[in-house]
Amino acid sequence: MTNYQKIEEILNVKNGYITSKDVRLNKIPSSLFTKYKRDNDLVKIYRGFYSKKDWLIDDYLVFQYIYPNLIFSLRSALFIHKLITLDKLSSILYGLEVTSIKGSTISSFKFFKEVTFHVIQSKEAYELGIMEVNSPFNNKIKVYDKEKTICDLIKFKSQIELTLYLEVLFKYFNSKDKDITKLINYSKLMNIEDKVKRVIDSFNLN
Hints:
With 206 residues, the chain is of the alpha+beta class. The chain has 2 domains: 49 residues, no CATH class; 144 residues, no CATH class. 45% of the residues lie in helices and 17% in strands. It has a 3-stranded antiparallel sheet. A 3-stranded mixed sheet has the order 4-5-6. The protein has a two-stranded antiparallel sheet with strand order 7-8. Helix 8 packs across helix 10 and helix 10 runs antiparallel to helix 11. The chain is elongated.
């Protein structure tokens, strides 16, 4: 396989984008990649991140490329897990919602207009429930799983619209793939076990 063919393969596998890291890992000479970019009109989305001209920009993917330690959480996670839909969550209205561990250095979110930023104190709590899923554009991103997101929803109830809060809980607790055991285990680690158990009791699941 030629280096040009390697680049084409990466672009096909990744739905139309390629990074400098991909180029290095596949031992493609940087000079050749520069020529490919010029000859094929690749678009520079961000430093080290390029795409085909017709690539639909995936804000979730680009955001996490720029800020790899920020995990999609709460409203963004609810949307990714399909616990809320576009009629309840608009990226124009809410923007992106993410969580970081204390000490992470973020200079600014200048490439994104609206970002809700949460900080977790402990590494254990930060890493709890992180999983990799497909974004709405079918690209791999990191997000908190449903149970961690439900725990966050309950923990930050005062910051959530009441109608949204109730609709999400109803949808989750009536879903076939809910994991109540995991939910309770997470709540213990997050020191909100009593709050979560009261919610579970209200749905008559014990």
